[in-house]
Amino acid sequence: MKAAFLTGLRQIAVADAPDPRLIHPRDVLVRVDSVGICGSDMHYYSTGHVGPAVIEFPFVVGHECGGTIVEVGAEVDDLGPGQLVAIEPSIHCGKCDQCLRGRHHTCRNQRFLGTPGQLSGGLVEYLVMPAECCFPVPESMTADQAALIEPLAIAVYTQRMAAAQDGAQIGILGCGPIGLSVLLALRAAGEYSIYCSEPIAERLAAARRCGAEWAGNPHKEDVVAEIAKRAPQGLDFVFECAGQQEALNQAAELLKPGGTLLIVGIPETECVSLPIHTMRRKELTIRNVRRQNHCVLPAIDLLATGKIKMDQLATHHFPLAETHAAFDMVANYRDGVIKAIIRVSDAS
Question: Which CATH number applies to 156-288: 3.40.50.720, 3.40.50.300, 3.30.70.870, 3.40.190.10?
Answer without folding.
Answer: 3.40.50.720
